[in-house]
C-alpha cells in the first residue's frame, strides 16, 4: 500500500462541505486571500521569518477569535481559544518559498518539514499531554500539506518504537541529542513506514486556484472550497450545527412548559408528565384543555390522558406549520410577509382553528373569503394532519376553538429577552408567548452550514427528535441516534441496490463502486442515458420496511440515502428524463444538494433552473415514499409522527406549480400502518381465491388513494379498500380453517351409505367426525375472534405491494429498524401471547424478548436474497437465553455482519448494543467489527460453522482465532463443578430489606449496620470485598462484619471455615484475567467473589489451572466478557464450567509446588518480577501439557496477548 493522497475537498468532512457563506462573506474572504497572495508574491525573496509573518497575518485576519503565534520550537500554531492559555489546535511548519530542499513536495513527502511537524506533535502529546490537537500543516505559503490528528495518532503517537526512541532522545540516551539526529535517524524511518502503510495526507496549491488569464483572480469553483478550508469549523473541528442526535434541551424544556408538562426520570426511563401543582399555569395548553373538559363533564379519569393527547396533536400541527412558514419565506427570497404564525395574525385559539381547518384543509376556491384574503399565500396541504381527529370529534374531547385565551407566566429559564436584553419575566398572552418563543429559533429545513440567523437551528432532524419525545410521552422510548440510522441505512440500502442491479443485468458487482465501473464500460461503447434510466427505475422498485417504525427515523434516513445513491451513480433524473447535474449526499442526517461548484442548492420562485431541480427532487421523493417505504407500529402516535416526518421531507422540496399554488402533498399515510407486527392470524403462505377478489383492483385503489387530493374521493377509496380487505378473511387459509374443511369433507363422505358396510361402525365413525368437526368449528371461531388479534397486522392484506401478480407473497428487499426490547419476565406478555409466540416463532425462548421475535419476523418478511439490518442489545451475542436466535442466524442466513458497539449509543438507556446485517441466503460467512470512539474496526471474518453447533457469537473467538484448535481441545475437558473435583458456591449477601433475623429495614441496608472498622465481639469476622481477591494473594481493607442469621443470605457457616479457593467475580482485561487465590482462614467474602470448596484434588493444582494463561484464553473466547462496556462479571455457573484436566498425583504435585512457591513470592514486599515471570511460565507450560496441546497449539497460547 502507498500513501493515500487527498484533494482539498476530500480533506474536509461532509459537515464542513455544507458550509455556505453568503456572497458578502465570500467577497470579504476573497479580498483577504488575494491581498495575502499579492503580498507573498511581492516578498518571495524575503527571509523565512518574514514570510512566516505574512502567513500569520493572513490567518489572524480570517480567524479573529483564535490566538495565533509561535509556541516553543513550533513555527506557528493556531490555538483553540482566544489567548495563549488555551491549548494548541493546529501546529504549522512554515518554509520559505524558495526553500525547496526542506519543503514537502508531492514527489518528496519525507522532507525535513514533515519530520519537524511530527516532532512538534510528539512534544505536544507526550510532554504537554495535549489531547486537543486537530491537525498538523506544512506550508510555504502556497503549497499546503494537511495531516489530520487521527492519522498522526495512528502512525506516530501509537507507534511504540517511535515513542520509546523519542523518550530516550529526550533523556539523552541515544547517540546524539541534536534535533537533526531526531529528524533523520528517529522520525524519518517511521514516516517512510507510515507512507508505505497508506497514511492519508491532503494537499492543495493556491496557485492552482488562480485563473491563468487573470492574475490574482480566483476561479469560482475554488473560492467556496477555500473559504471552507480556512474556516475555524474545519481547521479546529468546531461544531457547525446542532448534531441531529442531540436534543435541543433549551427548546424542548420551554416547549414542554408552554404545554404544561415536564420531563421526569422514573427508573431508567424519562417520561413526560403534567407539571406538579405548584408549577402549573392555568393558561398552559394542557391545563386549558383539562379545564374545558371538566366543564364539559368529561370523567376526571379521562381528563389528563385526553388533554395530553389533544395537546400533542395541536403542537404537532403548529411545529409542522412553523417548518412550512420557514419554507414559504425561503422560497420567496426571505420575504417576511409570508410569515403567518405571528401574534398579529393569530391572537386566539379560534384563529388557530381557522388556520387548521379553514385554510390548510381547504382548497383556495372553497375557503371563506375573509380567511382567504388574510392567508391567501398559505397553500392547501391535502394532509390528514389537518383533519379533525376522532378525539377532537368525540364527546370526551374538544376542538381547539373551545379554549379561552389567557395570560401565562413566562418560563423562568425562557429564551425570550426583554427590552434590557435580559431574560423576560412576568405574564404574557399565551399565543404571543408561543409565537415569540418559536421565532427565537431558526426552523430552516435545509442545511446552510454556517448559521446566518442569530437564532439556534431547529431543522427537520432536530425537530424529529422533539416529535419523538413528546409523542412517546408515556412510554419513555429510546430513539436511535442519527449517526446510527445513517450508517445502517447507507450500508443496507447500497447492498440491496447492488443485489437488485446484479439480478437485473446478470452483473457480478460486489459494491456501488463496481456498479459505477460497469456503467462506465457501457458508456464507452455508446449506450449512455438508456442504461442509467434503467438503473434508476430498478432502484425505484426497492421495497423497504421498518416493522417497528416508531417516529420513522429509519425511513427518513432511507429516503435520503436513496436520493444520495442515485446522485452518486448519476442516475438522478427529472420528469423529462434529463440527468440532474447536482451532487446529493447525506450529512448530519440531512440530505444536502450542491451544484457543480460545491455551492448549496436553494429553490427560489421565478428561477426556472432551481424550479427544475426542486420539482425533480419532489417527484423523486414522492415516488420513493409512495412505492419504496413501508412501516408498522403498535403506537398510533408513533405512526402519526412517522407520516408527519415523511411529509416534512417532501415539504422541503415543495414548489410553486404553474397555477401559482404550492404543490399539494400526496396521501402517504396508507404505507404506514397501526398494528402489532408480531401478531397475525394468517401465515405468509396463505392463498387468495383470486376468482372472488380482484387483486388488481385492490392495487389500483391503493395507487388512486395515494394520488388523489380530493378528500371525499379519498374517503370513498379508503372505504373500498377496507371492503376488499374484509373479504380476505373468507378466502384466506389458516391451520384451523384447513382442519375444518378437511373434517367437513370427511363428514360428507361418512354420510354416504355403504350397502355392504357395517351400519354400526359407520354410525360410530360419523359421530366421531361430527364431534371433531364441532371442536374444529369452535377452534376456528376462537382463532377468528381472538381479542389478541384486535391489534394484529395481516401483512399480506395490508401491503399488496409485496405480493406477486397472483397475490403470492414475495416480500421486502430490505427490513431495517430498532425493534422494541421487551422481556417476557417483566410480565409484558399475556399467557395467550406467549403461547402464540411459542407456536409461531421458532426462536421463541422461555424468557422471550421481542427483539429476537422481530428478527425472525424480519426474515419471514424478506424476499429470498433480501437484506436485513437491526440495532439490538448485544446480549444476543453470548447470553444463554438467546441460543435459538443465534442458531437461527447461523443456519438460516448468510453474509452476516456483527458490529459490537463499545460506544454508548443510547444516552439515556443502560444497554449495550450491537448492529446486525445479514442476507436471506444460504449460510456462508460471518464477519465481526467493533465500534469504538466512533470508528468501525474489523475484528475478523470466519465461516458460518466457526462457532460450533451451539454457537456463542464470541468476538474473542474471532480475535484469537489462531488459537481456535487449542480452545476446542480445552473446551472438551471435564468441568470443574463435579463431585470428584469441587463445588462452586456464592459468597454471602449481607443486606436485603425484609431479610435476616430480625428483618432488615431500608435504613439498616443503607447504613450497612452490620459492618464495622473494628472487631466488636466474637461474631464479627474479617470481611472481604471482591477487590481483596488477587491473583495468588489476598488483601484486607480492615472491615469486619457481624456474621450469622442477621444477614440476608449468610450461606453455610462451614463454607467459610474450610480451606477454599476464592475467585474474583470481575476479571481483568489482561493475559492473566482470572483473579483467584487459596484461603484457609475464616474470612467472610461477599457476592463479589465466588468460592470453590469441598475440593477433592490438590487445591494448589486447581488454583494453578484456574490462574493459567491457557484458562484465561479459554475464558475470553468462551464468554467474551469484555465485549460490553459495563463491568465484565462472570457467575457461579460459568466458573463451574471451567475445564479441569484429570491428572495423577505426581502431575498435580508438579503444578502445586510451583503455585506454592509463587504464592510465597507474592507475599514479599519487594517482589522479584523475573522469578514471578519464570514461575508463571512454568505453570503455564505444565497446564498446557496436561491439556494435551500440540506444540503449535502451545505456541498460539504463548503468543496470546490482549
Can you walk me through this structure?
- The protein contains 40 helices and 34 strands.
- With 1202 residues, it is of the alpha/beta class.
- The chain folds into six domains: 4-235, no CATH class; 249-471, no CATH class; 482-707, no CATH class; 734-785; 819-953, Vaccinia Virus protein VP39 (Rossmann fold, 3-Layer(aba) Sandwich); 983-1198, Adenine-n6-DNA-methyltransferase TaqI, Chain A, domain 2 (Alpha-Beta Complex), CATH 3.90.220.
- The strands form nine sheets. It has a nine-stranded mixed sheet, sandwiched between helices. It has a seven-stranded mixed sheet with strand order 1-7-6-5-4-3-2, sandwiched between helices. Strands 25-34-31-32 form a four-stranded antiparallel sheet.
- Helix 4 (112-127) links the parallel strand 4 (88-94) and strand 5.
- The longest helix has 32 residues, at 300-331.
- The protein starts with a strand and ends with a helix.
- Mean pLDDT is 87; it is low at 447-454 and 752-756.
Amino acid at each position: 500500500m502507498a500513501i493515500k493522497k487527498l484533494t482539498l475537498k476530500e480533506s474536509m468532512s461532509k459537515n464542513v462541505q455544507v458550509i455556505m457563506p453568503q456572497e458578502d462573506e465570500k467577497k470579504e474572504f476573497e479580498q483577504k486571500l488575494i491581498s495575502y497572495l499579492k503580498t507573498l508574491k511581492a516578498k518571495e525573496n524575503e527571509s523565512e521569518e518574514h514570510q512566516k509573518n505574512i502567513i500569520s497575518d493572513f490567518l489572524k485576519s480570517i480567524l479573529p477569535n483564535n490566538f495565533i503565534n509561535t509556541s516553543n520550537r513550533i513555527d506557528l500554531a493556531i490555538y483553540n481559544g482566544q489567548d495563549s492559555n488555551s491549548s494548541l489546535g493546529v501546529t504549522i511548519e512554515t518554509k520559505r518559498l524558495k526553500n525547496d530542499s526542506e519543503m514537502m513536495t508531492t514527489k518528496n513527502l519525507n522532507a525535513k518539514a514533515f519530520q519537524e511537524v511530527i516532532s512538534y506533535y510528539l512534544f505536544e502529546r507526550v510532554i504537554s499531554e495535549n489531547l486537543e490537537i486537530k491537525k498538523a500543516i506544512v506550508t510555504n505559503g502556497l503549497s499546503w500539506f494537511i495531516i489530520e490528528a487521527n492519522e498522526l495518532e495512528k502512525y506516530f503517537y501509537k507507534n511504540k518504537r517511535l515513542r520509546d526512541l523519542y523518550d530516550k532522545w529526550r533523556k539523552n540516551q541515544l547517540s546524539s541529542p541534536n534535533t537533526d539526529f531526531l529528524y533523520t535517524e528517529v522520525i524519518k524511518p517511521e514516516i517512510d513506514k507510515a507512507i508505505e502503510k497508506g497514511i492519508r495526507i491532503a494537499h492543495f496549491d493556491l496557485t492552482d486556484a488562480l485563473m491563468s488569464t487573470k492574475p490574482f483572480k480566483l476561479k469560482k469553483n475554488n473560492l467556496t472550497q477555500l473559504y471552507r478550508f480556512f474556516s475555524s469549523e474545519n481547521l479546529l473541528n468546531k461544531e457547525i450545527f446542532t448534531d441531529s442526535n442531540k436534543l435541543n434541551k433549551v427548546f424542548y424544556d420551554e416547549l414542554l412548559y408552554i404545554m404544561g408538562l415536564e420531563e421526569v426520570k422514573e427508573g431508567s426511563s424519562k417520561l413526560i408528565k403534567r407539571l406538579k401543582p405548584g408549577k402549573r399555569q392555568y393558561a398552559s395548553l394542557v391545563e386549558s384543555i383539562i379545564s374545558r373538559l371538566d366543564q364539559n363533564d368529561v370523567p376526571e379519569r379521562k381528563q389528563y390522558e385526553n388533554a395530553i393527547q389533544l395537546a400533542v396533536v395541536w403542537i404537532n400541527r403548529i411545529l409542522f406549520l412553523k417548518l412550512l412558514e420557514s419554507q414559504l419565506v425561503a422560497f420567496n427570497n426571505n420575504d417576511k410577509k409570508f410569515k403567518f404564525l405571528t401574534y398579529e395574525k393569530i391572537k386566539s385559539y379560534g384563529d388557530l382553528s381557522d388556520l387548521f381547518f379553514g385554510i390548510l384543509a381547504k382548497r383556495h376556491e372553497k375557503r371563506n373569503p375573509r380567511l382567504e384574503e388574510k392567508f391567501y399565500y398559505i397553500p392547501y396541504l391535502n394532509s390528514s394532519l389537518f383533519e379533525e381527529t376522532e378525539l377532537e370529534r368525540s364527546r370526551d374531547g374538544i376542538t381547539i376553538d373551545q379554549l379561552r385565551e389567557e395570560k401565562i407566566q413566562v418560563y423562568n429559564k425562557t429564551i425570550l429577552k426583554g427590552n434590557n436584553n435580559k431574560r423576560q419575566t412576568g405574564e404574557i398572552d399565551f399565543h404571543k408567548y408561543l409565537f415569540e418563543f418559536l421565532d427565537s429559533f431558526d426552523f430552516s429545513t435545509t442545511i446552510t452550514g454556517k448559521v446566518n440567523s442569530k437564532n439556534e437551528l431547529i431543522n427537520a432532524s432536530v425537530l424529529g427528535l422533539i416529535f419523538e419525545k413528546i409523542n412517546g410521552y408515556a412510554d419513555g422510548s429510546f430513539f436511535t441516534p442519527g449517526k446510527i440510522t445513517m450508517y445502517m441505512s447507507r450500508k443496507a440500502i447500497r447492498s440491496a441496490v447492488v443485489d437488485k442491479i446484479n439480478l437485473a443485468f446478470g452483473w457480478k458487482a460486489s459494491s456501488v463502486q463496481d456498479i459505477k465501473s460497469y456503467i462506465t464500460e457501457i458508456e464507452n461503447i455508446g449506450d449512455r442515458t438508456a442504461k442509467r434510466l434503467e438503473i434508476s427505475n430498478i432502484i425505484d422498485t426497492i421495497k423497504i420496511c421498518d416493522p417497528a417504525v416508531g417516529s420513522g427515523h429509519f425511513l427518513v434516513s432511507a429516503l435520503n440515502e436513496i436520493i444520495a445513491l442515485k446522485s452518486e451513480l448519476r442516475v438522478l433524473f427529472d420528469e423529462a428524463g434529463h440527468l440532474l447535474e447536482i451532487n446529493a449526499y447525506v450529512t448530519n442526517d440531512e440530505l444536502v444538494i450542491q451544484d457543480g461548484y460545491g455551492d448549496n442548492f436553494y429553490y427560489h420562485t421565478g428561477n426556472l433552473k432551481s424550479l427544475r431541480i426542486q420539482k425533480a427532487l419532489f417527484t423523486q421523493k414522492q415516488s420513493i415514499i409512495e412505492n419504496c417505504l413501508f412501516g408498522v407500529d403498535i403506537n398510533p402516535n408513533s405512526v402519526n409522527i412517522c407520516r408527519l416526518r415523511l411529509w416534512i421531507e417532501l415539504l422541503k422540496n415543495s414548489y410553486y406549480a404553474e397555477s401559482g399554488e404550492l404543490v399539494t402533498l400526496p396521501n402517504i399515510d396508507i404505507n404506514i400502518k397501526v398494528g402489532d407486527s408480531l401478531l397475525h392470524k394468517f401465515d405468509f403462505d396463505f392463498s387468495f381465491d383470486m376468482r372472488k377478489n380482484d387483486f388488481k383492483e385492490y392495487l389500483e385503489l391503493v395507487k388512486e388513494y395515494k394520488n388523489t387530493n380530493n378528500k371525499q374521493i379519498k374517503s370513498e377509496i379508503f372505504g373500498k379498500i377496507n371492503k376488499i380487505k374484509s373479504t380476505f378473511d373468507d378466502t384466506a387459509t389458516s391451520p384451523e380453517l384447513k382442519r375444518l374443511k378437511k373434517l367437513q369433507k370427511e363428514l360428507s363422505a361418512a354420510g354416504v351409505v355403504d350397502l355392504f358396510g357395517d351400519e354400526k361402525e359407520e354410525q360410530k365413525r360419523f359421530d366421531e367426525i361430527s364431534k371433531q368437526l364441532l371442536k374444529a368449528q369452535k377452534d376456528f371461531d376462537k382463532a377468528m375472534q381472538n381479542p389478541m388479534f384486535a391489534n394484529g397486522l395481516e401483512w399480506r392484506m395490508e401491503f399488496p405491494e409485496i405480493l406477486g401478480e397472483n397475490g403470492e407473497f414475495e416480500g421486502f428487499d430490505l427490513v431495517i429498524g430498532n425493534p422494541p426490547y421487551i422481556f417476557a419476565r417483566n410480565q409484558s406478555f399475556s399467557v395467550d401471547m406467549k403461547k402464540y409466540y411459542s407456536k409461531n416463532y421458532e426462536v421463541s425462548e422461555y424468557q422471550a424478548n421481542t427483539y429476537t421475535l422481530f428478527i425472525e419476523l424480519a426474515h419471514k418478511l424478506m424476499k429470498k436474497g433480501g437484506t436485513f439490518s437491526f440495532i439490538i442489545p448485544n446480549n444476543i451475542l453470548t447470553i444463554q437465553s438467546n441460543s435459538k436466535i443465534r442458531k437461527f442466524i447461523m443456519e438460516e442466513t448468510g453474509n452476516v455482519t456483527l458490529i459490537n458497539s463499545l460506544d454508548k449509543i443510547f444516552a439515556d438507556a443502560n444497554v449495550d448494543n450491537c448492529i446486525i446485517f445479514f442476507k436471506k441466503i444460504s449460510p456462508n460467512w460471518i464477519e465481526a467489527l467493533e465500534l469504538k470512539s466512533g470508528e468501525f474496526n474489523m475484528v475478523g471474518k470466519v465461516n458460518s460453522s466457526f462457532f460450533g453447533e451451539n454457537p456463542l457469537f464470541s468476538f474473542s473467538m474471532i480475535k484469537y482465532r489462531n488459537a481456535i484448535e487449542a480452545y476446542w481441545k480445552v473446551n472438551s475437558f471435564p468441568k470443574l463443578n463435579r463431585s470428584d473435583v469441587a463445588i462452586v458456591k456464592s459468597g454471602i449477601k449481607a443486606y436485603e430489606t425484609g431479610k435476616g433475623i430480625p428483618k432488615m429495614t431500608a435504613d439498616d441496608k443503607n447504613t450497612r449496620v452490620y459492618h464495622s472498622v473494628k472487631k466488636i465481639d466474637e461474631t464479627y469476622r474479617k470481611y472481604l470485598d471482591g477487590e481483596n481477591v488477587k491473583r495468588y494473594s489476598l488483601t484486607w481493607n480492615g472491615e469486619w462484619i457481624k456474621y450469622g442469621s442477621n444477614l440476608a443470605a449468610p450461606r453455610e457457616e462451614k463454607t467459610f471455615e474450610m480451606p477454599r479457593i476464592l475467585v474474583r467475580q470481575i476479571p481483568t482485561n489482561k493475559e492473566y484475567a482470572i483473579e483467584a487465590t487459596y484461603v484457609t482462614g475464616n474470612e467472610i467474602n461477599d457476592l463479589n467473589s465466588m468460592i470453590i470448596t469441598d475440593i477433592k484434588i490438590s487445591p494448589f493444582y486447581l488454583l494453578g489451572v484456574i490462574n493459567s494463561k491457557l484458562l484465561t484464553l479459554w475464558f475470553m473466547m468462551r464468554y467474551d466478557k469484555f465485549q460490553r462496556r459495563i463491568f465484565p462479571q462472570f457467575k457461579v455457573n460459568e466458573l463451574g464450567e471451567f475445564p479441569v484436566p484429570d491428572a495423577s498425583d505426581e502431575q498435580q504435585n508438579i503444578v502445586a509446588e510451583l503455585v506454592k512457591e509463587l504464592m510465597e513470592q507474592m507475599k514479599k514486599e519487594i517482589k522479584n518480577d523475573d522469578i514471578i515471570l519464570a514461575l508463571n511460565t512454568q505453570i503455564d507450560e505444565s497446564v498446557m501439557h496436561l491439556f494435551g496441546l500440540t506444540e503449535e497449539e502451545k505456541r498460539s497460547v504463548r503468543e496470546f496477548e490482549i
